[in-house]
Amino acid sequence: MKRSVIIFAIETSCDETSVAIINDRKKILSQITVNQKDHSKFGGVVPEIASRAHLQILQKIIPDSFKKAKININDIDLFCATCGPGLIGGLLVGSTIAKSMAAGLNKPFYPINHLEGHLLSTNFNSKLEFPNIAFLLTGGHTQIYLIESVGKYQLLGESIDDAIGETFDKVGKLLGLGYPGGAALEKLATKGDEKFFNLPHPLEKEKGFNFSFSGIKTAVNILVKKNGKVDAKIKKNMAASFQKKIVEILNKKLIFTLDYLKEKNIRMKNISVVGGVAANKKIKESLNIICKKNNLKLIHPPLSLCGDNAIMIANVCLEHFKINKKPELNFKSDPRLQINEKK
Ligand code: KG4
Ligand code: ZN
């Protein structure tokens, strides 16, 4: 029997240091993700601290990942790492280590776009069929893509200011929830009255795929200050009202997208929601209701693949290998790396 292809991946674009080893049947041989907690006290990721920490952590978790997978470095066929977008220090640390491993063993190195990692993360354990609409909701991006196939991504729209996860984090900070505040805010929202605060819906009247979130964050800031002492009740009600508004914005955008697909006569079976914010239950539930009404299936990664992880990077590497994409040892990491767009 032919030996399977084994892939080693590193993800270091922000504050998660992650390595994974998978095979071409998408079996996870090992995965280790370390969240750098050191940034919490600064209220955001400090790039210099992040890159130093990536270096320290990788030196420990790379050997551990081989031990866990019960394989030797020589058994790896393909090496890959996130090469953008993200914080350049972290990208350089992760990609240089993976490139050196590949170069030392004379094996291929594949540079991977972090956003493509998220976009195909549903493909790991559900059946992602093309064409597909993907809502990419992360700490740095809020985008809607029409995916035609692996490698063909058409950006339909995105946030013109803050990203959705960033907004969760900024509002979380205003409510004293620490960093990153998304998951804590979701938890707090379950205890509050979602009708208590009436927050703005930016771009409500505009027809289009773009988002805007900065006005909501400003409104929360003003309302919180106006209330003087931010007690527990205000916090709960604000968390619930904020999350309700975010859900409303996403719902509206999904309905607009479905109308667009009908108008263009583009048929598909599933819609995907990916990225760190796809961990949010309320968001998934409400998008799912709209999908069901339109005979579509909402797919999303499991919780463990919503946030940043190297499995989704290894997954893209495998998909690129399958479509005969060329490896690129000399690829330069780029903090603003764009995804291959096809208009
Ligand atoms: O995809 P991700 O791990 O990193 C980026 O590529 O940016 O996304 C991180 C973002 C953070 O802003 C975090 O607060 C948010 O995802 N997040 C959530 C939840 N869990 C994580 N936002 C809302 N609800 C959640 N349960
Ligand atoms: Zn991410």
Neighbour order of strands in the largest sheet = 3-2-1-4-5
Report low-confidence residues grouped into runs of 5 or more: none
- What ligands are attached or bound here? 5'-O-[(R)-(carboxyoxy)(hydroxy)phosphoryl]adenosine, zinc ion
Total count of helical runs of at least 4 residues: 9
Head-to-tail CA distance between termini: 42 Å
User: Helix- and strand-based class?
Assistant: alpha/beta
Query: How much is the radius of gyration in Å?
Result: 20 Å
β-strand percent reads: 15-25%
Give the overall pLDDT as a whole number: 95
Largest sheet: 5 strands, mixed
H-E string: EEEHEHEHEEEHHHHEHEH
Question: How many β strands by DSSP?
Answer: 10
Shape type: globular
Q: Approximately how much helix is present in the residues?
A: 25-40%
Molecular structure report:
This protein has helices at 47-69, 88-105, 114-119, 164-174, 182-189, 214-226, 232-263, 281-293, 310-322; strands at residues 6-11, 16-23, 28-35, 78-84, 109-113, 132-137, 142-149, 152-158, 270-274, 297-299. It has nine helices and ten strands. The protein has a five-stranded mixed sheet with strand order 3-2-1-4-5, with helices on both faces. β1 and β2 (16-23) form a beta hairpin. α1 runs parallel beside α2, α4 (164-174) runs parallel beside α6 (214-226) and α7 runs parallel beside α8 (281-293). The termini are far apart. With 343 residues, it is α/β, with parallel strands linked by helices. Bound molecules: 5'-O-[(R)-(carboxyoxy)(hydroxy)phosphoryl]adenosine and zinc ion. Residues 14, 138-140, 165-166, 168-169, 180-183, 186, 275-277, 279-280, 307-308 line the site of 5'-O-[(R)-(carboxyoxy)(hydroxy)phosphoryl]adenosine.
